[in-house]
TrEMBL record:
This is Transposase. Residues 1-41 form the Insertion element IS402-like domain. It comes from Streptomyces curacoi. Pfam families: DUF4096 (PF13340). It comes from the Bacteria.
Length: 91
């Protein structure tokens, strides 16, 4: 969170702030992410909160974002033309 909040580079994180070098903190974050620690920790926390009666549907939130692709982005199918054209003659 410190790196996200301050925008500081990992190599510049003060050791006294996180208890280890920034490079070590980044390596541990990477290792724990690859090991699947965060989803497991999240599930365990939710289980404990439910068990203690501290979590219900009234305590949930949804978040999201939508960003327009200014250069058009990647399209999966060609767009159908919307230009005016004459219908084929049936006579």
């Amino acid at each position: 969170m410190y790196v996200l909040r301050t925008g500081i580079a990992w190599r510049d994180v003060p050791t006294e702030t996180v208890g280890c070098s920034g490079v070590t903190a980044r390596r541990r974050l990477r290792d724990w992410t690859e090991a699947g620690v965060w989803p497991l920790l999240h599930a365990m926390l939710l289980t404990e909160l439910r068990r203690a009666g501290l979590l219900g549907l009234d305590d949930c939130a949804a978040d999201g974002s939508h960003i327009r692709a200014l250069k058009g982005g990647i399209t999966s199918v060609p767009h159908r033309s919307t230009a005016r054209v004459l219908a084929p003659s049936t006579t």
